[in-house]
Design goal:
The protein is mainly α. 40% of the residues lie in helices and 5% in strands. The strands form 2 sheets. A 3-stranded mixed β-sheet has the order 1-2-3. A 3-stranded mixed β-sheet has the order 4-6-5, with helices on one face. α5 packs across α6.
Length: 312
């Protein structure tokens, strides 16, 4: 059953979000219901994904715009449900903590402040871990949300006793939907089958930046305008570097003068790894390693031709 919020000491103020959660508890389900019971957690407004409430429910004014109705008609109590596979299809505000955990793992996006707050709520933390383990271990049905929760739980809290994803035919699931959020190219977690495309580190600081209507077109236009502004500046900077290394438009590129350019770049803070240096030499048709062959026909082209080819 729903745990009643702890009484506050006289004179101790309650945060607006905490007051809103506790005042809306009779209608919240899933993460929202769990958060309303996490009296020791300091939670911000539940954005960008929001919380879920029962159909026809009402919430505190503070949470309006941050709450959506439940995904299904969830008026059936868990007391009549015996199949584990059906747990997450039914939920009511008065149901058990585990029921709300199962609903959240099935239908709601991971909310980082909620996961962080679990550190101070051992009962809810244990139930939430069980819900993730049960859903992922079933091995059937839509597991996209469950695998996202699994990944984020282990990033923020601790490892769970779940076997790594071994069937690599599974579709890799992006942690954030790139059609809705600005994301990075990210990296794949083979254990979870998740593409971590967050803009930051989930365990420290990670902003979620939603796209707006026409964001893709605006990004292309901004990139074109930025290049138009920066191109002359970049060309002047490049020219200064070349002049400092006595490289002119008609200079033939050799390993020696290209080495001077790299040294000058390094002294000005533009250092490269050995692999990057070798790639740089290769782009200009010059051997970079000691003992390698001297400049070939490609390396004897004038500097201006190399710059044109490099830009193309």
């Amino acid at each position: 059953q729903v745990k009643m919020p702890a009484e506050k000491a006289p004179g101790v103020p309650i945060s607006p979000v905490r007051a809103a959660l506790e005042g809306s508890a009779k209608d919240l389900i899933g993460v929202g219901q769990l958060a309303s019971q996490m009296t020791h957690a300091c939670l911000p407004l539940p954005k960008p994904f929001g919380l879920h409430m029962r159909r026809g429910g009402k919430v505190h004014e503070t949470l309006k715009g941050c709450v959506v109705e439940a995904k299904k008609d969830l008026w059936t109590s868990m007391s009549s449900i015996s199949s584990l596979s059906s747990i997450s299809d039914f939920c009511d505000p008065d149901d058990s903590i585990l029921t709300h955990c199962n609903y959240a793992v099935q239908y709601e996006f991971p909310w980082l402040p909620f996961l962080t707050g679990l550190k101070h709520e051992p009962e809810i933390k244990e139930a939430f871990a069980d819900a993730i383990i049960n859903k992922v271990s079933m091995g059937f049905g839509d597991q996209k949300m469950a695998r996202r929760w699994w990944y984020m739980y282990e990033q923020v809290l601790e490892p769970l006793p779940i076997d790594d994803v071994t069937d690599m035919d599974h579709t890799i699931i992006p942690l954030l939907p790139p059609e809705r959020f600005f994301t990075t190219q990210g990296f794949i977690s083979p254990r979870h089958g998740i593409l971590d495309n967050l803009l930051g580190d989930a365990s420290t600081f990670c902003p979620f930046v939603e796209k707006f209507a026409g964001a893709s077109d605006a990004a292309r236009e901004f990139k074109a305008e930025l290049l138009e502004v920066l191109s002359p500046i970049c060309m002047m900077t490049i020219k200064d570097f070349f002049s400092a290394c006595e490289l002119t438009d008609s200079t033939k590129i050799t390993q020696e003068n290209l080495g001077k350019l790299l040294q000058h770049l390094d002294e000005d803070g533009f250092s490269m790894s050995e692999e990057e240096k070798q790639e740089f030499y290769h782009l200009f048709g010059v051997g970079g390693e000691a003992g390698s062959k001297g400049p070939d026909d490609e390396g004897l082209k004038p500097l201006s031709m190399h710059i044109v080819n490099f830009a193309e």
